[in-house]
UniProtKB/TrEMBL annotation:
Keyword Cytoplasm: yes
GO biological process: methylation
Protein's gene: rsmB
Organism of provenance: Spiribacter roseus
Name of the protein described by the UniProt record: 16S rRNA (cytosine(967)-C(5))-methyltransferase
Entry's localization field: Cytoplasm
Family: Belongs to the class I-like SAM-binding methyltransferase superfamily. RsmB/NOP family.
Superkingdom of source: Bacteria
Length: 436
C-alpha cells in the first residue's frame, strides 16, 4: 500500500518514482497524480527535478546503493530503495548543502513510518560522503551503469552508432532546452524575440530552423507573451522540419496520420492554406489536436481512426501530402522523457517496426501521383528508421527518395538521422518519398 499523498517534495518524488518504476506509469502521468500538495511552486519544481534526475540516473544510483548495502532491500521496501537513490542524486547532481540533502531525505523515511530505514539511510548517505570517490570509480567502470542505460539499449546504440554512442548517451542524460516555434503568420521571429526580451526572457535563433527560438532558460508557458493568442508554440527545433519537408502548398489536401498532440499539423497550416485531415487512433489525445488548432486560430478536419487499417480509408481518398509521425520507441527524446529507458522493452522495437511498416503500406496508395509522403520518428534506432524505409522502398516501383538537406545530422541511405544533442536538438529521423 502506498503512503498518503505527500506534502513535501521528496516524499512526493518517492510516490512519483514508485508509480513509474513499480507500476509502469508514464512520468507525466505520475507527476500529475502524485505531485506535492500545497501551492508553493518551489516544492513542485524540486519534486520534478528529483523525479527527472533519479530516472535519468536510475541505474547508476541503484549501483551506488548496492555498493553500500550488504543485502538488497525487500520488495515491500522499494520506497526506501528509491529514497536512497534520491539521497545519492541530491549529493551528486544537485546544488544544495549536503547536510540538508541528508537530513531531509532521512526525514521522509520517518514520515513514512520506517524508523529503521531512517537510521540505515542516514548511515549509508554519510558513508557515501566519506567514500564517494572509490564508490563512483567502481560503479562507473561499466558504461551501462555510468550512463544509466539498460544493457539492451546500450548494445543497440553501440551497434547502430559505433563512433557516436558515447556522445549520444551523454546527451540523453542532459536537460533539453525549451524551444519555441514562432507563428510567423502572426508575428516575425525577430519581433517575437523582442517581445520576449521585453519580458526579461532571453532567446536566440538556431541556424537552419527559420521559425525556432531557443530560450536561455525554461519558463512557464503562462509567462510566454501571446501564447494564448497563438503567437508561438513549444516544439523542439528538429520537429519543426516536418512541415518544410512536407512542402504543402495552398489548396493541397494533407493528411497527418498520427496527429496527436497536433504540433506538426499546426505548423503545416501556419505555413500554407491547406486542407488538412488530422487522424489519430486515440480519441483522448486527438482532443489535444483540436485544442492546439483552436488556440492558434487554425482549422482542420479531425478524425478518430487507425491510419494503418486499410478498411478505414475510402478507396477514392487521396492526398497531395501525407505525414506519418510514426509511433516509435522515443529513444531520441529520452532527455525529455527519461522514463522511456525503464518502461520500454527490447521486444517492443520489433512490434513497433511492424506497426510502422503497416502505416507505410496502407498510406502509400493514398498519396496522389506527384504527391509526397514524409515518414519520421523520434527514435535513434536503425530498426525503426532506415531499416523500415529501406525495406518499404525495395517493395515499391513508384517511389523517388528525395535527398535530405537538413542543417543537422547525417544522410543514412533513404533518409536522414539526427542524433540526440546534435546542435542541441532532439534525436529524429526523416525520410521524404515522392510518388512518381
Amino acid at each position: 500500500m502506498s503512503a498518503k499523498p505527500s506534502t513535501d517534495p521528496r516524499g512526493a518524488a518517492v510516490e512519483v518514482l514508485l508509480a513509474v518504476l513499480g507500476r509502469g506509469r508514464s512520468l507525466d502521468r505520475a507527476l500529475s497524480e502524485h505531485g506535492p500538495g500545497g501551492d508553493d511552486p518551489r516544492d513542485v519544481a524540486l519534486c520534478r527535478a528529483i523525479a527527472y534526475g533519479v530516472l535519468r540516473h536510475h541505474r547508476r544510483l541503484g549501483a551506488i546503493r548496492d555498493h553500500f548495502l550488504r543485502s538488497r532491500l525487500k520488495s515491500r521496501d522499494q520506497d526506501m530503495a528509491l529514497l536512497l537513490e534520491i539521497g545519492f542524486f541530491q549529493l551528486t547532481e544537485m546544488d544544495m548543502p549536503a547536510h540538508a540533502a541528508v537530513s531531509e531525505t532521512v526525514a521522509v523515511a520517518r514520515r513514512r513510518g520506517k524508523p529503521w530505514a531512517a537510521k540505515l539511510i542516514n548511515a549509508v548517505l554519510r558513508r557515501f560522503q566519506r567514500d564517494s570517490a572509490a564508490c563512483l570509480q567502481a560503479v562507473d567502470a561499466d558504461p551501462g551503469r555510468s550512463a544509466s542505460v539498460p544493457d539492451w539499449l546500450l548494445a543497440r546504440l553501440r551497434r547502430d552508432w559505433p563512433d557516436d554512442w558515447p556522445a549520444l548517451l551523454a546527451a540523453q542524460n542532459t536537460r533539453a532546452p525549451m524551444t519555441l516555434r514562432v507563428n510567423q503568420r502572426r508575428i516575425s521571429r525577430e519581433a517575437y524575440r523582442g517581445r520576449l526580451a521585453a519580458e526579461g526572457i532571453g532567446a536566440h535563433p538556431l541556424d537552419g530552423f527559420e521559425d525556432a527560438l531557443v530560450l536561455d532558460h525554461a519558463v512557464a508557458v503562462s509567462a510566454l507573451p501571446g501564447f494564448a493568442e497563438g503567437d508561438c508554440s513549444v516544439q523542439d527545433a528538429v520537429a519543426q522540419w516536418a512541415a518544410p519537408l512536407l512542402g504543402a502548398a495552398d489548396g493541397d489536401r494533407v493528411l497527418d496520420a498520427c496527429a496527436a498532440p497536433g504540433g506538426k499539423a499546426a505548423h503545416v497550416l501556419e505555413r500554407a492554406a491547406a486542407s488538412l485531415l488530422a487522424v489519430d487512433s486515440d480519441g483522448e489525445r486527438l482532443q489535444r489536436v483540436t485544442e492546439t488548432l483552436d488556440r492558434l486560430g487554425l482549422s482542420a478536419e479531425v478524425r478518430v481512426a487507425d491510419a494503418s487499417d486499410p478498411g478505414q480509408w475510402p478507396a477514392a481518398e487521396r492526398f497531395d501530402r501525407i505525414l506519418i509521425d510514426a509511433p516509435c520507441s522515443g529513444t531520441g527524446v529520452i532527455r525529455r522523457h527519461p522514463d522511456i529507458k525503464w518502461l520500454r522493452r527490447e521486444a517492443d522495437i520489433a512490434h513497433l517496426a511492424v506497426r510502422q511498416r503497416a502505416l507505410l503500406d496502407t498510406l502509400w496508395p493514398r498519396v496522389a501521383p506527384g504527391g509526397r509522403l514524409v515518414y519520421c520518428t523520434c527514435s535513434v534506432l536503425r530498426a525503426e528508421n532506415e531499416a523500415v524505409v529501406e525495406a518499404f522502398v525495395a517493395d515499391q516501383d513508384d517511389v523517388t527518395v528525395v535527398p535530405s538537406v537538413l542543417p543537422v545530422g547525417r544522410p543514412v541511405g533513404h533518409g536522414h538521422q539526427i542524433l540526440t544533442g546534435e546542435a542541441g536538438v532532439d534525436g529524429f529521423y526523416y525520410a521524404c518519398l515522392d510518388k512518381r
